[in-house]
Design a protein that fits this description.
With 254 residues, the protein is an alpha+beta fold. The protein is built from nine helices and ten strands. It is 42% helix and 20% strand. Strand 4 and strand 5 form a beta hairpin. Pfam families: cNMP_binding, HTH_Crp_2.
């Protein structure tokens, strides 16, 4: 199976390896997990809030938003998920969706059975720990979003989101100055806790200040430092930290 194979879990392994040390056998065991590819059209809810689930969903391509809803149907997006993310790994231990999942564009999902993930975690404790660290990253992102949406002004909220996505989409390679962003203003408003009109005005202000231009499905950052300052953005919560120096030395024979 090649890295370009759409059913390959290698991007998920790469994400895990950014924060954990795994042996070749452990890596191969993850790559051998059974998957079921599903093509989902854009703007489709494929997991409902409080739905009972039997698999975790890996994003092979496309983009997904996690959301909650009020009783009258208003949505709050709580995360954007990108290729390489296992968006609901936490569902393995609690198979009830605490948030719904919707596609933002045509997306390929790989469904991975909970039973297979649990068996893998039991057999390889280090893999279970790597999964744990992965869910901790999701929790750190959520915490930042809560503060951003709950306490920041409009321009700051949007600038923070654009900075976060520039780093996450760049992976461990670079901060992307330009990237695809298939998120409508309506969805961006749901993520930032703003009205569509307010989002439009704030995007215009950011553009006129020479910080960022957001066109249909793309973001172009003109001044990273000023955009990060406007968004009160610090990337520490996204920085890879394996926290496993001792295991790395043991595996290296030191």
């Amino acid at each position: 199976m090649s890295r370009s194979d759409p059913t390959n879990l290698q991007p998920f392994v790469d994400r895990l390896l950014a924060r954990s040390v795994l042996t070749p056998d452990e890596i191969q065991a993850i790559l051998a997990l059974p998957v079921h590819p599903v093509e989902v059209r854009g703007q489709t809810d494929f997991v409902q809030v409080n739905e009972k689930t039997s698999c975790a969903c890996f994003i092979a391509s496309g983009m997904v938003a996690r959301f909650g809803e009020t009783r009258d149907g208003q949505r709050q997006i709580t995360a954007f998920h990108i290729p390489g993310d296992m968006v609901d790994l936490n569902s393995v231990v609690r198979p009830i969706a605490v948030g719904g999942l919707t596609t933002l564009c045509n997306t390929t999902i790989l469904e991975v059975p909970h039973t297979a993930i649990r068996a893998l975690a039991v057999r390889y404790p280090a893999v279970a720990e790597a999964f744990w660290r992965d869910t901790m990253l999701d929790a750190a992102i959520l915490m930042q979003w809560v503060v951003n949406v709950g306490k920041q002004r409009a321009k700051t909220r949007l600038a923070h989101i654009f900075c976060e996505m520039a780093i996450r989409l760049g992976g461990d390679r670079q901060i992307l100055q330009e990237y695809d962003f298939p998120v409508s203003q309506e969805r961006l408003a749901e993520a930032a806790g703003m009205t569509g009109v307010h989002v439009n005005r704030s995007l215009k202000a950011l553009r006129e200040e020479g910080l960022v231009t957001v066109k249909r499905y793309s973001v172009k950052i003109h001044d990273w430092q000023r955009l990060a300052q406007t968004g009160e953005f610090e990337a520490d919560y996204l920085v890879a930290d394996t926290g496993t120096d001792r295991r790395a030395r043991l595996l290296a024979g030191d």
